[in-house]
Amino acid sequence: MSENSNRTTNLLITLAMPAFLLVAGVLILLSTLSMEPELGVFPRIVSILLIVVALFDIVFELRKQDIKNPFRNSRALMSMVYLLVLVAYTYALPKVGYIISTILVSFYTMYVLGYRNWKNMIISAVGITAVSFLIFGILLKVPLPTVFLEI
Amino acid sequence: MLDGIALGFQHLMNPMVLLALLGGVMLGLVVGSLPGLNDSITIAVLIPVTFGMDAYVALALLCGIYVSSACGGSYPAILMNIPGTASAMVTTLDGYPMKQQGKGGLALGIANTSSFFGGLFSALCLLLFAPILAQVAVKFGPPEYFMLGVLGLATVIGMSTKNVTKALLSMAIGLWLSTIGMSPQTGIARYTFGQVSLLDGIPLIPRMIGLFGITSVLKMVDEKRKVAATVSKSEATVPGEVLQEKVSETETKLQQEDVVKLPDKEMALRLLPTWISSSFIGTILGIIPGAGMTMAIYVAYDQVQKVKKKLKFGTGVPEGVAAPEAANNAVVAGSMVPLLSLGIPGNGTSALFLGALTIQGMRTGPTLFTENGGMAYMMILAFVIGNLIMFPLGYQYCKHVMMKVLKIRSEILAAGIIVLCLTGSFAYKNNPFHVLAAVFFGLVGYLFWKYKIPQAPLILSTIVGSMMESNWLSSMVYADGSVSVFFTRPISLGLVIVSVLFLIWPIIQKIRQRKQET
Questions:
Q1: Looking at CA atoms only, how far is residue A111 from chain B in angstroms?
Q2: Which residues of B touch A43 (CB under 8 A)?
Q3: B189 bridge partner residues
């Protein structure tokens, strides 16, 4: 029973991606119906290709004997949290400024990878941000947002 | 022609022009090695600056940048699994595994030498065959361009021998992504979801940064515990924290023993056929407008896989670094052939030279050779001499700057990578939206990795998709909706045959293998 439920869970997770792409393909195909012929022909061909290939992939996966959970033994949740931190960085950039946001994101990156030498982490985070600011902000004159520390 | 070459050489030997060429080569290596920057951005920024310069000095500077940035792009591709330029994407496949095996220095040496070989090969071809080669390029029309895109996609699908379905999925996703933005024919926006930033489509640089750089850091986050778990199975009595240190010690030892070295005589002889074939591929594809470095690196890599079947590409094979690096540098001079001969740029970067020459009051095309022969041949010779300068300069740059990167602790390096990625994405067009785009593609790359979907078809199809769509529509208008146009034109038919061969060759190989086994 446990083995069956494991297989079912693994199957559902494995099929999530091709199923998502199948649905996406259908939605794209539907969206092309309201487009002018010149505008819609290429997306229509692509959506049909996407639907057909996604269906094939689902069939191949269902026929497999041994289905592995792609997220087994992984820190997927931590990876998603890290991604959310990067998204937060994007929104914080114009509000808090480049320097503070970047120091925080580099510090957090080292932390999430398991580094625990706090002194080195702080020095590295500040150092990395300083070098990056020097190259992009000063040498290449990229207008990096510096809300609090105008240079 | 000899008079032109002599005049060009005379201009090039001017100390200021030579200095500008040297400066351009150095700058190209540096910007190429920084993800988020590339030759196009640098040249575009410098063109207004060159307005006040002597024409020969200005063009020598820009030629130097163009010559070396593709080579510079391979350095972070090998050391950090992030291509510094889009043309180094394929180099990551074998370059980074080589670094992980403690052969990062050798990989850098191979990349340097391959780039030099490819660049010099195509520069000499440019010098000798420019007028002849341009005539072939003129015969390419919309059907040929469409089939060129098909050929490129067939190549990457053909490379994915393990799971063709997943490769096709990746390609289909990429082709749809290429439809985002304004339609090439009608100018009407598609799938922009109201975002003004998407009107120009999904930007290439943030996309590459996300798929490579951010994905690589996500992989490190994901695998952190897995590394410790693997070690703990064999050393069950050792506490968790000490295990982390043991893994780092092994990595550090490999890094400290790794030094930059050029390929020795044996390795050079082994790589010579790869260098020649890849340089040839790069030169030809560089000449064809629109084909570009991306297609050249995939075709070259696929070609070497087919020839060296016994090698396990993707695990750190020297040929896997040599092929794309020779090909991408060979595209450089090749792309100048249609520009100088016909006034048609071979790719985006060579299009910038059009602007640079116009600012200096010169016209490209056949008249450039008659009215400004000295300039035309000076530029061609700059590509030859630029490659000769790039080789030792690139070696020293790797030895004294890039190898230091290997000695840095992986957690600190990851933080540096993510900062470079995020800043580079922003620097592309000073728009935080592009940082979000890079993060999004980081997620795409991560999910592709988890579900074992190859990235290569996605990357290539997003680049060629728009070109394929516009040329498909033009072909249908030209042929009144008849697809026979792809089979009745000789060059197009040739490309159809080659595409089909690339697609079915892996299937034929599998059938032959099964027959041999039974």
A1: 8
A2: 176, 179, 190-191
A3: B182
Q: For A57, which residue in chain B has the nearest alpha carbon?
A: B165
Judge: B412–A47 Cβ closer than 8 Å, yes or no. Answer: no
CA–CA dist B384, B388 (Å, integer): 7
How does pLDDT run along chain B (518 residues), one tens digit per residue?
677 778 888 888 899 999 999 999 998 888 888 766 667 666 766 766 676 778 889 889 989 999 998 888 899 889 888 887 878 889 999 999 999 898 988 999 999 999 999 999 998 888 887 666 556 666 778 898 888 788 778 877 776 656 788 989 999 999 999 999 888 777 888 888 888 888 888 887 788 778 877 888 898 898 874 443 333 333 333 333 333 444 455 555 555 557 788 888 999 999 999 999 999 999 988 877 666 788 888 889 988 988 888 889 999 999 999 999 999 999 988 888 777 776 666 666 777 777 777 777 777 666 676 677 788 888 888 999 999 999 999 888 888 887 676 567 778 888 988 998 898 888 877 888 999 999 999 999 999 999 989 887 887 788 778 888 888 888 988 888 888 899 999 888 988 998 888 778 777 777 777 777 76
Burial class (CB in 10 A: 0-12, 13-18, 19+), B305: buried
Residue B275 C-alpha, separation from nearest chain A C-alpha, in angstroms: 34
Domain region containing B262:
2-517
Judged by CB atoms closer than 8 Å, whether chains meet at B414 and A143 is answered as no
Q: pTM of the predicted model, to two decimals?
A: 0.73
CA angle B391, B392, B393 (to 5 degrees): 95
ipTM value, please give it: 0.93
| B233 CB within 8 Å of a chain A CB | no
* Closest to B111 measured CA to CA, from B259, B213, B261, B256: B261
Q: How far is A1 from chain B (nearest CA, A)?
A: 26
Report chain A residues whose CB lies below 8 A from the CB of B218: 79, 82-83
Interstrand relation of B189-190 and B181-182 (parallel, antiparallel or unpaired): antiparallel
CB contact under 8 A, B415 and A39: no
